[in-house]
Amino acid sequence: MMDEISSFLNKIRYSKHCIYCEGINESISRPKHHPSYEFTSECNLDCLFCYSRIAKLKGLAPKPGYYGNLKPKAITISQFGEPFSVGEEKVALTIDKLREIFGEVRIDIQTNGTYDLGLMDGRADIILVSLNAASSESFQKITRRDMFNEVIKNIKRASEFCYTIVRSIYMPGLNDHEIRKIAEIGSIADEFFLQPLTIYEENHELLKYVDVGRVESIYEYLSAVYELSENVNVRIPGCLLLNLRQFARNYDLSKIIYIKRNAFGKIPRIKRKWRFVL
Q1: Is the pLDDT of residue 266 over 90?
Q2: Contacts of 117 (CB under 8 A, 6+ apart)
Q3: Is 3.10.20.30 the CATH classification of the domain at 2-276?
Q4: What's 170's DSSP letter?
Q5: Strand, helix or coil at 154?
Q6: CB distance 195 to 236 below 8 Å
Q7: pLDDT tens sequence across 115-143
Protein backbone atom coordinates (compact mmCIF):
# COMPACT_ATOMS: atom_id res chain seq x y z
CA MET A 1 0.00 0.00 0.00
CA MET A 2 2.83 2.42 0.84
CA ASP A 3 4.43 1.95 -2.60
CA GLU A 4 1.11 2.76 -4.21
CA ILE A 5 0.69 5.89 -2.09
CA SER A 6 4.24 7.00 -2.88
CA SER A 7 3.54 6.74 -6.60
CA PHE A 8 0.15 8.33 -6.07
CA LEU A 9 1.70 11.42 -4.44
CA ASN A 10 3.54 12.12 -7.68
CA LYS A 11 0.33 11.90 -9.71
CA ILE A 12 -2.36 13.43 -7.51
CA ARG A 13 -3.35 16.98 -8.39
CA TYR A 14 -4.47 19.81 -6.19
CA SER A 15 -7.85 21.45 -6.64
CA LYS A 16 -8.27 23.96 -9.43
CA HIS A 17 -9.42 26.31 -6.67
CA CYS A 18 -5.84 26.27 -5.29
CA ILE A 19 -4.32 27.75 -8.45
CA TYR A 20 -2.88 31.22 -7.64
CA CYS A 21 -2.98 30.53 -3.88
CA GLU A 22 0.29 31.26 -2.07
CA GLY A 23 0.06 27.87 -0.38
CA ILE A 24 1.31 26.08 -3.50
CA ASN A 25 4.48 28.19 -3.63
CA GLU A 26 7.20 26.69 -1.43
CA SER A 27 9.24 29.91 -1.58
CA ILE A 28 6.60 31.70 0.53
CA SER A 29 7.18 30.92 4.20
CA ARG A 30 3.89 32.27 5.55
CA PRO A 31 1.37 31.85 2.74
CA LYS A 32 -2.08 33.41 2.68
CA HIS A 33 -5.19 32.32 0.84
CA HIS A 34 -5.91 34.32 -2.29
CA PRO A 35 -8.22 37.33 -1.86
CA SER A 36 -11.85 37.00 -0.85
CA TYR A 37 -14.97 39.10 -0.75
CA GLU A 38 -16.99 38.54 2.42
CA PHE A 39 -20.71 39.19 2.69
CA THR A 40 -21.79 37.73 6.02
CA SER A 41 -20.98 35.15 8.66
CA GLU A 42 -24.62 34.02 8.67
CA CYS A 43 -25.73 30.70 7.22
CA ASN A 44 -28.99 28.80 6.85
CA LEU A 45 -27.28 25.55 7.88
CA ASP A 46 -25.79 24.73 11.29
CA CYS A 47 -22.94 22.35 10.48
CA LEU A 48 -21.24 20.52 13.33
CA PHE A 49 -17.77 21.50 12.09
CA CYS A 50 -18.45 25.16 11.22
CA TYR A 51 -15.61 27.62 11.89
CA SER A 52 -17.65 30.69 10.96
CA ARG A 53 -19.82 30.10 14.02
CA ILE A 54 -16.70 30.03 16.21
CA ALA A 55 -15.53 33.35 14.78
CA LYS A 56 -18.93 34.85 15.61
CA LEU A 57 -18.81 33.48 19.16
CA LYS A 58 -15.43 35.13 19.68
CA GLY A 59 -16.49 38.40 18.08
CA LEU A 60 -14.01 37.90 15.24
CA ALA A 61 -16.28 37.35 12.27
CA PRO A 62 -15.02 39.44 9.33
CA LYS A 63 -16.88 42.57 8.38
CA PRO A 64 -18.24 42.69 4.82
CA GLY A 65 -15.80 43.65 2.12
CA TYR A 66 -12.77 42.77 0.04
CA TYR A 67 -9.71 41.26 1.73
CA GLY A 68 -6.35 40.88 0.01
CA ASN A 69 -3.97 42.38 -2.51
CA LEU A 70 -5.14 44.77 -5.20
CA LYS A 71 -3.79 42.76 -8.13
CA PRO A 72 -5.70 39.50 -7.67
CA LYS A 73 -5.73 36.62 -10.11
CA ALA A 74 -8.58 34.92 -8.26
CA ILE A 75 -11.17 36.05 -5.72
CA THR A 76 -13.11 33.71 -3.44
CA ILE A 77 -16.71 34.50 -2.56
CA SER A 78 -16.53 33.90 0.38
CA GLN A 79 -14.60 32.17 3.20
CA PHE A 80 -17.06 32.84 6.02
CA GLY A 81 -20.80 32.22 6.08
CA GLU A 82 -23.09 31.47 3.15
CA PRO A 83 -22.80 34.26 0.57
CA PHE A 84 -26.23 33.66 -0.95
CA SER A 85 -27.95 34.29 2.36
CA VAL A 86 -27.71 38.00 1.42
CA GLY A 87 -29.54 37.30 -1.85
CA GLU A 88 -28.38 36.04 -5.23
CA GLU A 89 -28.94 39.45 -6.82
CA LYS A 90 -26.55 41.16 -4.39
CA VAL A 91 -23.86 38.54 -4.99
CA ALA A 92 -24.28 38.91 -8.76
CA LEU A 93 -24.04 42.71 -8.59
CA THR A 94 -20.92 42.50 -6.42
CA ILE A 95 -19.23 40.14 -8.86
CA ASP A 96 -20.00 42.56 -11.70
CA LYS A 97 -18.43 45.41 -9.72
CA LEU A 98 -15.36 43.32 -8.84
CA ARG A 99 -14.83 42.63 -12.53
CA GLU A 100 -15.16 46.35 -13.29
CA ILE A 101 -12.38 47.00 -10.76
CA PHE A 102 -10.07 44.06 -11.42
CA GLY A 103 -10.87 42.93 -14.97
CA GLU A 104 -11.11 39.25 -15.91
CA VAL A 105 -10.15 37.94 -12.48
CA ARG A 106 -11.20 34.37 -11.70
CA ILE A 107 -14.26 34.21 -9.45
CA ASP A 108 -14.59 31.18 -7.15
CA ILE A 109 -17.85 30.87 -5.23
CA GLN A 110 -18.03 28.77 -2.07
CA THR A 111 -21.57 27.77 -1.17
CA ASN A 112 -23.49 25.17 0.79
CA GLY A 113 -25.56 24.53 -2.32
CA THR A 114 -28.98 25.20 -0.85
CA TYR A 115 -29.70 28.39 -2.83
CA ASP A 116 -30.54 28.88 -6.49
CA LEU A 117 -27.43 29.55 -8.61
CA GLY A 118 -29.00 30.69 -11.87
CA LEU A 119 -27.56 34.22 -11.82
CA MET A 120 -24.05 32.79 -11.51
CA ASP A 121 -24.20 31.51 -15.09
CA GLY A 122 -21.66 33.69 -16.92
CA ARG A 123 -20.38 35.20 -13.67
CA ALA A 124 -18.72 32.36 -11.74
CA ASP A 125 -15.63 30.60 -13.04
CA ILE A 126 -15.62 27.97 -10.30
CA ILE A 127 -18.41 26.98 -7.93
CA LEU A 128 -17.49 24.91 -4.88
CA VAL A 129 -20.46 23.15 -3.30
CA SER A 130 -20.08 21.58 0.14
CA LEU A 131 -21.38 18.03 0.52
CA ASN A 132 -20.46 15.92 3.53
CA ALA A 133 -23.21 13.32 3.52
CA ALA A 134 -24.63 10.75 1.12
CA SER A 135 -28.22 10.67 2.38
CA SER A 136 -30.87 12.96 3.80
CA GLU A 137 -30.50 11.32 7.20
CA SER A 138 -26.74 11.86 7.36
CA PHE A 139 -27.12 15.37 5.97
CA GLN A 140 -29.51 16.29 8.78
CA LYS A 141 -27.12 14.85 11.36
CA ILE A 142 -24.20 16.95 10.12
CA THR A 143 -25.95 20.18 9.09
CA ARG A 144 -29.01 19.97 11.38
CA ARG A 145 -31.19 20.85 8.41
CA ASP A 146 -33.18 18.81 5.86
CA MET A 147 -31.91 20.21 2.54
CA PHE A 148 -30.00 17.31 0.98
CA ASN A 149 -32.10 17.17 -2.19
CA GLU A 150 -31.68 20.90 -2.82
CA VAL A 151 -27.89 20.51 -2.70
CA ILE A 152 -27.88 17.62 -5.17
CA LYS A 153 -30.12 19.59 -7.53
CA ASN A 154 -27.83 22.62 -7.40
CA ILE A 155 -24.67 20.58 -7.96
CA LYS A 156 -26.24 19.29 -11.16
CA ARG A 157 -27.36 22.78 -12.13
CA ALA A 158 -23.95 24.39 -11.54
CA SER A 159 -22.23 21.62 -13.50
CA GLU A 160 -24.19 22.69 -16.57
CA PHE A 161 -22.63 26.15 -16.83
CA CYS A 162 -19.25 26.30 -15.07
CA TYR A 163 -16.43 24.31 -13.53
CA THR A 164 -17.98 22.75 -10.45
CA ILE A 165 -16.25 21.26 -7.42
CA VAL A 166 -17.93 19.10 -4.83
CA ARG A 167 -15.98 19.76 -1.67
CA SER A 168 -16.14 17.33 1.21
CA ILE A 169 -14.45 17.11 4.59
CA TYR A 170 -13.13 13.72 5.67
CA MET A 171 -14.46 13.18 9.20
CA PRO A 172 -13.52 9.73 10.58
CA GLY A 173 -16.22 8.50 12.90
CA LEU A 174 -18.84 10.73 11.29
CA ASN A 175 -18.83 10.40 7.51
CA ASP A 176 -15.95 8.08 6.60
CA HIS A 177 -18.32 5.13 6.21
CA GLU A 178 -20.06 6.85 3.30
CA ILE A 179 -17.24 8.90 1.80
CA ARG A 180 -17.17 6.65 -1.27
CA LYS A 181 -20.87 7.26 -1.85
CA ILE A 182 -20.39 11.01 -1.37
CA ALA A 183 -17.62 10.89 -3.98
CA GLU A 184 -19.87 8.99 -6.37
CA ILE A 185 -22.51 11.69 -6.00
CA GLY A 186 -19.78 14.27 -6.53
CA SER A 187 -18.67 12.61 -9.76
CA ILE A 188 -21.37 14.57 -11.59
CA ALA A 189 -19.16 17.63 -11.00
CA ASP A 190 -15.74 18.34 -12.52
CA GLU A 191 -13.79 17.38 -9.42
CA PHE A 192 -14.20 15.95 -5.94
CA PHE A 193 -12.15 17.98 -3.45
CA LEU A 194 -11.49 16.07 -0.23
CA GLN A 195 -10.12 18.03 2.71
CA PRO A 196 -9.00 16.86 6.16
CA LEU A 197 -11.05 18.05 9.12
CA THR A 198 -10.02 20.95 11.33
CA ILE A 199 -11.55 20.71 14.80
CA TYR A 200 -12.45 23.67 16.98
CA GLU A 201 -12.93 22.77 20.63
CA GLU A 202 -16.03 24.95 20.82
CA ASN A 203 -17.78 22.62 18.38
CA HIS A 204 -18.72 20.26 21.21
CA GLU A 205 -21.29 18.27 19.25
CA LEU A 206 -18.70 17.38 16.60
CA LEU A 207 -16.36 15.97 19.24
CA LYS A 208 -19.06 13.51 20.28
CA TYR A 209 -18.88 11.82 16.89
CA VAL A 210 -15.40 12.06 15.40
CA ASP A 211 -12.45 9.82 16.25
CA VAL A 212 -9.75 12.42 16.97
CA GLY A 213 -6.90 9.92 16.64
CA ARG A 214 -8.01 8.99 13.15
CA VAL A 215 -8.68 12.61 12.24
CA GLU A 216 -5.04 13.35 13.09
CA SER A 217 -3.69 10.45 11.01
CA ILE A 218 -2.24 11.67 7.73
CA TYR A 219 -1.94 8.08 6.54
CA GLU A 220 -5.66 7.43 7.02
CA TYR A 221 -6.57 10.54 5.07
CA LEU A 222 -4.16 9.69 2.25
CA SER A 223 -5.44 6.12 2.11
CA ALA A 224 -8.99 7.40 1.72
CA VAL A 225 -7.95 9.75 -1.09
CA TYR A 226 -6.03 6.97 -2.81
CA GLU A 227 -8.96 4.56 -2.72
CA LEU A 228 -11.34 7.19 -4.07
CA SER A 229 -8.98 8.05 -6.93
CA GLU A 230 -9.73 4.72 -8.57
CA ASN A 231 -13.23 5.92 -9.47
CA VAL A 232 -13.44 9.72 -9.26
CA ASN A 233 -11.37 12.80 -10.07
CA VAL A 234 -10.32 13.42 -6.49
CA ARG A 235 -8.13 16.39 -5.56
CA ILE A 236 -6.54 17.56 -2.30
CA PRO A 237 -5.50 20.99 -0.95
CA GLY A 238 -2.45 22.38 -2.74
CA CYS A 239 -0.72 23.47 0.47
CA LEU A 240 -1.10 19.96 1.91
CA LEU A 241 0.19 18.33 -1.27
CA LEU A 242 3.22 20.62 -1.23
CA ASN A 243 4.06 19.60 2.34
CA LEU A 244 3.52 15.90 1.64
CA ARG A 245 5.86 15.98 -1.33
CA GLN A 246 8.47 17.83 0.71
CA PHE A 247 8.18 15.14 3.39
CA ALA A 248 8.56 12.39 0.77
CA ARG A 249 11.73 14.04 -0.57
CA ASN A 250 13.37 14.32 2.84
CA TYR A 251 12.17 11.28 4.78
CA ASP A 252 11.22 7.66 4.40
CA LEU A 253 7.58 7.87 3.35
CA SER A 254 6.73 4.72 5.33
CA LYS A 255 7.17 6.83 8.48
CA ILE A 256 4.04 8.74 7.55
CA ILE A 257 2.06 5.93 9.17
CA TYR A 258 3.26 7.27 12.52
CA ILE A 259 3.02 10.99 11.77
CA LYS A 260 0.10 12.87 13.28
CA ARG A 261 -1.03 16.34 12.31
CA ASN A 262 -2.47 18.80 14.80
CA ALA A 263 -6.14 18.70 13.80
CA PHE A 264 -7.20 21.39 16.27
CA GLY A 265 -7.56 24.86 14.85
CA LYS A 266 -7.00 28.10 16.68
CA ILE A 267 -9.08 31.23 16.22
CA PRO A 268 -10.47 31.31 12.65
CA ARG A 269 -9.71 34.68 11.12
CA ILE A 270 -8.74 36.30 7.83
CA LYS A 271 -5.04 37.18 7.68
CA ARG A 272 -5.34 39.46 4.67
CA LYS A 273 -5.92 43.22 4.83
CA TRP A 274 -9.45 44.61 4.50
CA ARG A 275 -9.59 47.05 1.57
CA PHE A 276 -13.11 48.18 0.69
CA VAL A 277 -16.79 47.26 0.66
CA LEU A 278 -19.11 47.48 -2.34
Answers
A1: no
A2: 84, 88, 111, 124, 127, 154, 157, 158
A3: no
A4: E
A5: helix
A6: yes
A7: 999 999 999 999 999 999 999 999 999 99
